[in-house]
Amino acid sequence: MEHTHLIIFFAFLLLLPLSAFAQGPVIMDIKSYGVGPDGDITDALDKAWKEAIASPKPAKITIGAGQWTLKQAHLAGPNVAPLELEVLGTVKALPDVNQLPNKEFEWVTINYVNFFTLSGVGGVFDGNGQQAWAANDCNTNKNCAKLPINLSFNFINNSIIQDVTTKDSKNFHVNCIASGNVTFQRFKVSAPGTSINTDGIHIARSDRVTVVDTVIQTGDDCISMGDQLTNVLIKNVECGPGHGISIGSLGKNPEEKDVTGITVQNCTFTNTDNGVRIKTWPSAPATLNISDLNFIDLTMNNASNPIIIDQQYCPWNLCSLDKASLIQISKVKIDNVKGTSDTQDVLIFSCSASKPCQDVQIGNVDLKFTGDPALGGATTKCENVKYTTTGTQNPPLCVKSSAPKPVPK
Q1: Which of 180, 188, 200, 304 is deepest in the core (most CB within 10 A)?
Q2: Which sequence positions are flagged as catalytic?
């Protein structure tokens, strides 16, 4: 699936007149717009972008090596011909969120483009987020200040984001919303594990999104997925530190729509707070379905909660547990999951009492508990789940360890 976008891309190129490629793409070097070395590229990028989207020939905006300041960029299409933004240097945000020219926008927003490429080996978008993390009180303050996302992609299609790094975002590093046939490849997310609310890539209301050959180190979910998603492939991703790869949380909004066709394959989780997680809110109005999920060939290196379905998700006691989740989870395949966990329950199925998890297929699990040996070995937890098993199950599914618990001192 990760190659589908390339086939469509090249098919589109064949439809363009040969004259469009006679001398390659139109190059728009940011330095040609009056920017000195290590200067502020805010106005220059805006001008270059407007010229590039209007070009009848493929266009390429280049931000060369060096350190550049960018106050904010709101870049919108539509574009006439294929368009590339190449970043070879470090583009840095201002540290104070109050310095954003428009606080309603993210730091870098790219909307309504087709056949777009963001590229650049060595290129970095540095959100300069340390000051914002220190002031972030969103876990206790519902009216907390809105913080900007490093890279916000909305309504983009047939596009590739490759070989660039997003670093130290003040909020989520990336979102990809209402988009189709988008690939993130050889992408990197970099932030300390202590950074707050810095999800690596958030995807929602999209179809055919691929994340491949990517390294994500951050303080929240490596990848988070919202509602109305179809055909997502996450493959060869290294996650950690972070909170793992999550579907949800879902259920709060009655307008939420189904999630179907999610594959997480050949991924590694190192010292993460979770591995793969599904989370839905109890006592919430949404009635969507989450189905056709594949968690295959996963390696856990001292990860907490390697596989967890949590339909009683209620962080900081911000909800009621009076009513079970109304979301149906079904057709889940879990196979070839191995490694180590620092939590004893290595598989957790905490499913809804009103909508039990259906058709969960579990095969070839080998997970070891690395904590206190006095607690016994790895265990599993099963509530309201209908499952079948094949292959080796270590630990045995839904059988608790009989080892005595240590007496508290």
Answers
A1: 200
A2: 243
